[in-house]
Design the sequence.
């Protein structure tokens, strides 16, 4: 999972760098050729996009730096932590939900990714299979029992065995 995140970040950094260094300068040059820049929406749009891409690149570069500092030996092998895949059962509805704990920027609810900084992520951190966690949400309290878990360390071991 860690390598997937690094690869995903690297691909986006590469794409945005190309856009910043090649695509946007061409768009700005073309817009300048149209003349009066005060009334030129193409020029303004290209400059706004350039600012956005620069900000996003700075953010992604910082995240890539953070990921490179993660020490796999510091991630618990027997407790839920960053990268863990967890299946919980809602104690009220008996519905099962499966989540992967990721950094805040990599949230994708549709694929079951939640941030370690989210209320649910914080409640699950450090817990083990069989434990129950309680969450106080705006719509009321929610109790979840941890049915199963696979830590990042366990996933790495499996890949080494393959």
Sequence:
């Amino acid at each position: 999972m860690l390598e997937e995140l690094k690869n995903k970040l690297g691909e986006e950094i590469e794409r945005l760098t190309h856009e910043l260094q090649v695509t946007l300068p061409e768009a700005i040059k073309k817009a300048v050729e149209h003349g009066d820049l005060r009334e030129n929406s193409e020029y303004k749009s290209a400059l706004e996009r350039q600012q956005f891409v620069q900000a996003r690149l700075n953010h992604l570069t910082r995240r890539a730096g953070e990921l490179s500092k993660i020490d796999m030996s510091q991630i618990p092998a027997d407790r839920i932590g960053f990268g863990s895949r967890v299946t919980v059962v809602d104690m009220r509805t008996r519905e099962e939900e499966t989540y992967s704990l990721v950094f805040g920027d990599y949230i994708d609810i549709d694929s079951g990714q939640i941030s370690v900084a989210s209320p649910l992520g914080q409640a699950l951190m450090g817990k083990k299979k069989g434990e129950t966690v309680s969450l106080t949400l705006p719509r009321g309290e929610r109790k979840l029992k941890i049915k199963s878990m696979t830590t990042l360390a366990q996933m790495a071991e499996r890949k080494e065995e393959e």
